[in-house]
């Protein structure tokens, strides 16, 4: 029985705690866990925490267990910086999906920056917290540059209903999870605006081309983008209203106010990716991402974005 610590008691951290309790004791830390006595997190309604999960608002002391970081992307850098003394030198598994707007880096680079002696890994792929928590079968990617550490984490974090595949391509895995959220907002906009299933398929495919273009420029392997953490998660998030990124786009497309309390990682990530694309001289090659950034920041209307995408010079696929 090997234990894990999960930092971040939102929907995803809580869902991971529920499934990982099958393998051993889980400590779930959150900054606001007033719900702990009820054993049900309002962010994951209808799910009762199993007895093997200890919920706390006191950061657990250092031990040999892996630490899963399940915080929103834009607060992860500050959290790592503030708690480096407790986290450095340990196995840290980033579970957030996004690009940090302050540094234009993904979670593994933030770990490297603030906790240079840590062993960084990434857990990502197609999975809604509610599905994992209900024990529905799910397959994810565990990425770690150190193949031996990755294999050990793969074994420790797989459960009878959570099947992990492993890769050493950390950049590919984390960029797939980050970039698909941007495309999911676009897919939601398309569906909300009534532009049709054909338009969504076109957008997902051309969005995927952008994901591969951007990630490979940053050293990712194209085949990683074709796996669970890229294409798999893109398909899930662009086709399900369970996705907060998709729902955000849906509201925009319908002309309704989006839920501004939800964690919608694609918003900041779109801005960060546009900035990074400019630095990488990829500016003209990320049109969907650029339009998501422009529409969500209110710089162009949906109609203008559609026209801009449809009237680009014709090119080879
Ligand atoms: N919900 C899902 O289905 C999945 C989520 N993820 C990823 O997991 C990450 C977290 O998402 P969720 O848990 O869904 O979000 P959530 O919105 O359910 O929860 C976010 C949690 O972070 C806490 N938090 C915010 N700022 C904080 C800070 N400065 N310090 C400490 N805690 C802070 C909040 O109190 C809240 O409990 C995101 O990057 C998301 O993309 C990944 C896969 C599935
Ligand atoms: O990453 C997810 C599914 O794999 C969750 O999607 P949302 O963050 O859009 O809800």
TrEMBL record:
Sn-glycerol 3-phosphate binds at residues 97, 125, 127, 180, 233, 243-245. Residues 169-307 form the Glycerol-3-phosphate dehydrogenase NAD-dependent C-terminal domain. Coiled coil: none annotated. It is an enzyme of class 1 (oxidoreductase). Residues 4-148 form the Glycerol-3-phosphate dehydrogenase NAD-dependent N-terminal domain. Pathway: Membrane lipid metabolism; glycerophospholipid metabolism. Its EC number is 1.1.1.94. Signal peptide: none annotated. One of its GO terms (molecular function) is glycerol-3-phosphate dehydrogenase [NAD(P)+] activity. NADPH binds at residues 12, 31, 97, 129, 244, 264-265. It is found in: Cytoplasm. The active site is at residue 180. It catalyses: sn-glycerol 3-phosphate + NAD(+) = dihydroxyacetone phosphate + NADH + H(+); sn-glycerol 3-phosphate + NADP(+) = dihydroxyacetone phosphate + NADPH + H(+). Keywords: Cytoplasm, Lipid biosynthesis, Lipid metabolism, NAD, NADP, Nucleotide-binding, Oxidoreductase, Phospholipid biosynthesis, Phospholipid metabolism. InterPro entries: 6-PGluconate_DH-like_C_sf, 6PGD_dom2, G3P_DH_NAD-dep, G3P_DH_NAD-dep_C, G3P_DH_NAD-dep_N, NAD(P)-bd_dom_sf. It comes from the Bacteria. Belongs to the NAD-dependent glycerol-3-phosphate dehydrogenase family. PANTHER family: GLYCEROL-3-PHOSPHATE DEHYDROGENASE, GLYCEROL-3-PHOSPHATE DEHYDROGENASE [NAD(+)] 2, CHLOROPLASTIC. Catalyzes the reduction of the glycolytic intermediate dihydroxyacetone phosphate (DHAP) to sn-glycerol 3-phosphate (G3P), the key precursor for phospholipid synthesis. This is Glycerol-3-phosphate dehydrogenase [NAD(P)+].
């Amino acid at each position: 029985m090997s234990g894990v610590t999960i930092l971040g008691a939102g929907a995803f951290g809580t869902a991971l705690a529920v499934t990982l309790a099958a393998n051993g004791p889980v400590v779930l830390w959150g900054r606001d866990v007033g719900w702990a006595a009820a054993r049900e997190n309002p962010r994951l309604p209808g799910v009762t925490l199993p007895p093997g999960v200890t919920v706390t608002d006191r950061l657990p002391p250092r031990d040999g267990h892996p630490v899963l970081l399940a915080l929103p992307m834009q607060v992860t850098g500050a959290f790592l910086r503030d708690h480096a003394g407790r986290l450095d030198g340990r196995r840290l598994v980033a579970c957030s999906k996004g690009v940090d707007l302050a540094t234009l880096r993904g979670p593994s680079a933030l770990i490297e920056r603030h906790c240079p002696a840590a062993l960084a890994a990434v857990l990502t792929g197609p999975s809604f917290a509610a599905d994992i928590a209900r024990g529905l079968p799910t397959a994810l990617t565990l990425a770690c540059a150190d193949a031996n550490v990755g294999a050990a984490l793969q074994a420790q974090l797989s459960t009878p209903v959570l099947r992990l595949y492993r890769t050493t391509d950390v950049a590919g895995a984390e960029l797939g999870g980050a970039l698909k959220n941007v495309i999911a907002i676009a897919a939601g906009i398309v569906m909300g605006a009534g532009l049709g299933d054909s338009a969504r398929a076109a957008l997902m495919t051309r969005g995927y081309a952008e994901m591969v273009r951007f990630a490979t420029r940053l050293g990712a392997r194209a085949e990683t983008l074709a796996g669970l953490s890229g294409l798999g998660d893109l398909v899930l998030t662009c086709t399900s209203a369970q996705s907060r990124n998709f729902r955000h786009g849906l509201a925009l497309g319908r002309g309704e106010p989006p839920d501004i309390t939800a964690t919608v990682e694609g918003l900041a990530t779109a801005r960060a990716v546009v900035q990074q694309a400019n630095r990488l001289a990829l500016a003209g090659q990320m049109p969907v991402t650029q339009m998501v950034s422009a529409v969500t920041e209110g710089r162009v209307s949906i109609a203008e974005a559609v026209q801009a995408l449809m009237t680009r010079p014709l090119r080879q696929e």
